[in-house]
Specification:
45% helix, EC 2.7.4.3, nucleotide biosynthesis, 16% strand, metal-binding, alpha/beta, binds BIS(adenosine)-5'-pentaphosphate, Adenylat/UMP-CMP_kin, P-loop_NTPase, 3-stranded antiparallel β-sheet
Length: 207
Amino acid sequence: MSHRILLLGAPGAGKGTQSAKLADAYGVEHVTTGDALRANKDMETEYGTPRSFMEAGELVPDPVVNEIVEAAIGDADGFVLDGYPRNLDQAEYLSEITDLDAVILLDVDEEVLVDRLTGRRVCDDCGANYHVDFQPPEEPGVCDECGGELIQREDDTEETARERLDVFYDNTEPVIDHFRDEGVLVEVDGEATPDEVFARIRDVVES
Ligand code: AP5
């Protein structure tokens, strides 16, 4: 069975955490526009660099992101897509380049989202994700996996996190409504431990 899984959710809902687990479990590509853009923050495009949009919590222009997704999905047999589509135009583009086997929304309350975002720390070397309270490293400030330094993402300040949530409500909720209207959206309660949330998602994918 092919696994072409789309994981939707607000900033901080746990898309990155769960997508990595799913990609591992099913041996498929983890396609994440956020990571791809962070790796190419200073790339010159006709709209400016991705950095200028990301640091303001705004969406990077569609043509830049569409190209990244099309190249990453390519002819892949399976993938977990995280961070895309974020508006209806991107959703339309996605439907032109691939079919999906599962569309899952991670539901998390807004104040929990803000706590998760402002407490997140990421490894500067390997990109592993931590949280100062919910998923602390064994030694504060040091990555368990590679010993790298843990840093706060530039867009994880409370002000930018709230801006990103506003962008999500304005642009991405219509995408969620679109999949809900099509009858393909499955909502999963994202407020539990990462392992419990993963078990819930797995049940959906395998049912
Ligand atoms: P992106 O990197 O995609 O950020 P996001 O959607 O805002 O999502 P996050 O990475 O912040 O959160 P997440 O849901 O992955 O949660 P995570 O698992 O890390 O995008 C960043 C920027 O890039 C955008 O603002 C935009 O500028 C640009 N961009 C990206 N895609 C784009 C697109 N398609 N179009 C245009 N622009 C685009 O978890 C968060 C924290 O919570 C972590 O600390 C984690 O440890 C913790 N946590 C996770 N799960 C749990 C749990 N179950 N319990 C307790 N803590 C948990």
